[in-house]
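EI: anyone free to look at a 340-residue chain?
SC: sure, send it
EI:
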Amino acid sequence: MTGVKRLCMKLKAAGWSKHILMLILTLGICLVLFNNYNEQNLIYSVSTNIITNVYSAELNKVNAIPRSSKKYVKVEFSGRLGNLMFEYASLYGIAKHHNITPIVDEGCKLRTFFKISAVSVKPLLNLKRYVEKKGNVYEENAFKLDTKYNWTLKGYFQSWKYFIDNSREIRKEFQFKENVQIEATKQFQEIIKSKNITNVNKHTFIAVHVRRGDFVNNQYFVNFGYSSANESYINNAMTKFRSQFSNAFFIFSSDDIAWCKNHFNESNIAFINKKNSPEVDMAIMSHCNHTIVTTGSYGWWTAWLIGGTTIYFKDFPRKGSKLDKIFDSTTYNLPSWIAM
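SC: here you go
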């Protein structure tokens, strides 16, 4: 019996060992499968995160506002109409030379009477400033701006050399708005009608702008060298035009029209008598064919808009004055204009 018991016990033990072994093997397999599952899960999670992050980055690139490389230049406007026109024309020419965009402030006066194209933008960052060294002299450095920056120009920039390459565009910029042009045309017709001129094609009209005012009455300006053309110069210029055109007719505009009437009273002369705004007077004179310029930027731009033949006063500024030492007539008056 004892042997039988031992055999049974061995068989029983072996049976249990088999079960234990099977259990251990089963647990091992489960552990391997579990670890493999976690590893796959981790790989999937990491892969998903990478894909998600790449997608998000691409989406952000699409949605992000690109940083503009466009650069701008503006000018600090100063002075009256003639000065403003020089400043804008030079701004335009300098901008086009550098292939950057000219802009103006919202309150730019020129917008009220010219069809200028320059727009306004929000305040500029990354801004540098170019300051003109002295007026009435062309400065080549204005054409050497670093285009990595936005720029503000400070000065009068009174030289044709800043915008001569853009003359055609400037003429478009300085087209008078309809309300100004309509009023000017109306007054021009009234002027010639008052002189019994019925056919404008039978006459050659010469605008005569006489600048006196502060150039005569402001002692600081006089001492500095500003001067007004005298009667003799105007008579000589008129005589030259009469020698060229037998049907010459002169239209005077001035800040001292009484002085003009006291010195010039021939039958082929008329005066702009109304107290117009400067732009309306300029638009009236732009109906003429040629120009006699005394002094000042207003007369300069009147002549430029008219085209044709221009005679200018060669004795400006007063010789030996402070202004004379810094003034360069060759870069101020156009080469085609006639000095007298």
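EI: Residues 94 and 143 are 6 Å apart (CA to CA).
SC: 👍
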